[in-house]
């Protein structure tokens, strides 16, 4: 019985960690979504331009190939 | 409704994981007392194996994402890389932790530095930790992404190495119980069923997590771009 109790405590710890991680991620996603909607609607940005690093990297590759 | 698909995956996966634990603790039969030092602790197997399975899925996603970024400069690939590292770290830690709990009860020690599988899996988890912490501490840029993608590509070598480790060097970690050979493995059907429910639940759960992680990365990129526009940049 002692072994089962030990196991239950270990399981509960992992379930709590999973639940906290999931909750944090969902709340963070919703919070950023709300902030972003407010900012983007005020300045009118195209979603396809979101990853500036990738865009710059692709442009750089094209520039390199023309040299 | 489509935007809430990751949350639906997370919910279904979490309920499945809870059901697996309930079935594993209350329904699945106990193992032979003669064969184990601590038969009760063996039930952590229903958490340990599915979380290791989910970790391998996450490391696979990390590899694909790293390759897509490194060779194609794909923004989608970078988001896959980020999602794979975070999911790989979480599942890796769950696997290592549950393994340590079992090892402490069964072997009398939580870790064995001479066992190949324990150490290669530990290295994989440390790689995911390095990638998560490194990405958070470095400014985002092409060089940073290239460096981390390279680690993601080469680090994946540890996945097949970890998988075959107990087939080549069985030191302390138990050998394979499913797909072990011609005898069909040593699991009873009820144990295999609980394990299957666990593997499915963890798979759905980790897919939900990776979807939501990809969404967060995309939202953060959009927010950064919007802030630059507000500050007068491009």
Question: How would you characterize the overall build of this protein?
Answer:
The complex is a heterodimer of chains A (67) and B (234). With 67 residues, chain A is mainly alpha-helical. Chain A contains two helices and no strands. The longest helix of chain A is centred in the middle third of the chain and has 42 residues. Chain A is elongated and about 60 Å long. Chain A starts with a helix and ends with a helix. The C terminus of chain A is likely disordered. With 234 residues, chain B is mainly α. Chain B has one domain. The longest helix of chain B has 42 residues. Chain B starts with a helix and ends with a helix. In chain B, 43% of the residues are buried. The mean pLDDT of chain B is 85.
What is the share of helical residues of chain B? over 70%
Largest sheet descriptor of chain A: none
In quaternary terms, these chains amount to heterodimer
Task: Indicate the mean pLDDT of chain B.
Answer: 85
The end-to-end distance of chain B, rounded to whole angstroms, is 33 Å
User: Count of helical segments of chain A?
Assistant: 2
Overall strand count of chain B: 0
Strand composition percent of chain B: under 5%
General form of chain A = elongated
Structural class of chain B: mainly alpha
Task: List low-pLDDT spans of chain B.
Answer: none
Number of strands of chain A: 0
Low-confidence stretches of chain A: 63-67
- How would you characterize the largest beta sheet of chain B? none
| Helix content estimate of chain A | over 70%
* Tally of distinct domains of chain B: 1
